[in-house]
Design goal:
11 helices, ProC C-terminal domain-like fold, NADP, binds 1,4-dihydronicotinamide adenine dinucleotide, 2 domains, 8 strands, binds (2S)-3,4-dihydro-2H-pyrrole-2-carboxylic acid
Amino acid sequence: MTAKLVLVGCGHMGRAMLSGWIGSGRIAPTEVVVVEPNEDLRAKAAALGCAAVAGTEGLPADIFPKIVVIAVKPQAIRDVLAGYARFGNGATTFVSIAAGTSVATFESILGEKTPVIRCMPNLPAAIGKGMMVVFANGHVSDKARDFVAGLLAASGEVASVDDERLMDAVTAVSGSGPGYVFHFIEALIAAARTAGLPAETAARLAVQTVYGAATMAATSSEEPGVLRQQVTSHKGTTAAGLDVLMGDEALTRLITETVDAARRRSIELGS
Ligand SMILES: NC(=O)C1=CN([C@@H]2O[C@H](COP(=O)(O)OP(=O)(O)OC[C@H]3O[C@@H](n4cnc5c(N)ncnc54)[C@H](O)[C@@H]3O)[C@@H](O)[C@H]2O)C=CC1
Ligand SMILES: O=C(O)[C@@H]1CCC=N1
């Protein structure tokens, strides 16, 4: 069977990436088989034009995929992987987006010569604005690495690390990061409401402000600290607000604790 790619798990992140790959034309839907036990999610994969099956028993007996993408929860990985051991130690490259789960875990279940790429994406991949960070073991061929990098580029920016241990920090910063930013938006909306703005206006102002500031930080040649200073008039309103946020490094300390808690959880999930 000619399927190039098997996607195992078509939940939030799996689907976000799949729609980018197909939308960009980097892979044809007919080259993808999705394995997903949830019927509604299988229907969404089918709507993208992909074959969708409920479990490994639904895969064609003669399938020999180039890539198997594992997009299930880390807690399920060990059980799920066993079903794909027949593709291990060979020409199939496994790509895992699971938090914490090490390359060694994949090698121990699939065979120590299995090509494995760990990738930490983030949810904005759904709109082509993701941040994907990869780490590959020594069995991944240049051809497979290039193919996967091309696919990932459809979902946003791609970076790599040479030291697998850094994947826990990556997970805590860019993997979980959209969650922190969404919460910041929630907090700004709540504060806007407290300050008297109607709900719709509060949401509009908060979202557009974060969008505009993030876009400016991404496109400007100035550091974020310089941009912050450009907003801050001497003895003005921003200075009064930042006195609260930056006093005693309040936000920096909170974010450092936040990232550290997420990094430690990533390590726990991998053990
Ligand atoms: N949600 C996010 O923002 C990010 C998630 N990740 C990683 O992506 C992975 C998936 O996370 P989400 O998409 O958020 O979870 P999710 O729960 O939305 O998706 C997981 C999917 O796996 C399916 N599944 C369960 N058992 C299966 C099996 N035996 N075979 C095939 N599919 C099976 C579930 O039905 C579900 O649809 C996790 O390992 C997570 O660490 C990584 C970066 C960001
Ligand atoms: O919360 C999680 O564990 C996953 C990994 C990074 C984002 N979501």
